[in-house]
Amino acid sequence: MTDRKRAVTLPHPIRVVQFGLGPIGLATSRLVLEKPYSMELVGAIDIDPERAGRDLGTLLDLPDPTGVIVSTDAVEVLREAKPDVVLHATGSFLPSVADQLEMCLSAGAHVVSSTEELAFPFDRHPKLAARLDEAARAAGRVLL
């Protein structure tokens, strides 16, 4: 077995919540579900009321349900699921997603976001970047 194919052995799977179920969020959800030895998808959040209440497997066209029910209530999902990590994929522009990112950090989760402006936020949004940096430091979490 090559190093690239070797399974990661963890004391427990990383608990993951997917926040945003557009094309990127669906793709990252699928990847998490394919790694059951290292990650466990414990929640899914999307603002689309048409997706709420549906099993994530139906959105991914999987043959079997995943047991993960999509919710529009981010606060409730984060509180109940207690994720280690939130995969965040809701928007490109930092001002429109900052509150979501802070919510995830305050729930005790590390955050990996596809928000393009997070690549170097101090250039366009220095005050907002400083606020998010402080929120991450205060929570003892990483925002990437």
Provide an overview of this structure.
By secondary structure, this protein is of the alpha/beta class. It has 6 helices and 5 strands; from the N terminus they run βαβαβαβαβαα. It has a 5-stranded parallel beta sheet with strand order 3-2-1-4-5, with helices on both faces. The chain is globular, with a radius of gyration of 15 Å. The termini are far apart. About 35% of the residues are buried.
Broad shape: globular
Strand content: 15-25%
Q: Total number of helical segments?
A: 6
The run of helices and strands is: EHEHEHEHEHH
The helical percent reads 25-40%
Structural class designation? alpha/beta
Q: Roughly how many Å apart are the termini?
A: 31 Å
Secondary structure: number of strands: 5
Our Rg estimate from Cα atoms comes to: 15 Å
User: Which stretches are low in confidence, meaning pLDDT under 50 for 5 or more residues running?
Assistant: none
Mean of pLDDT: 94
Strand order of the largest sheet: 3-2-1-4-5
Largest pleated sheet = 5 strands, parallel
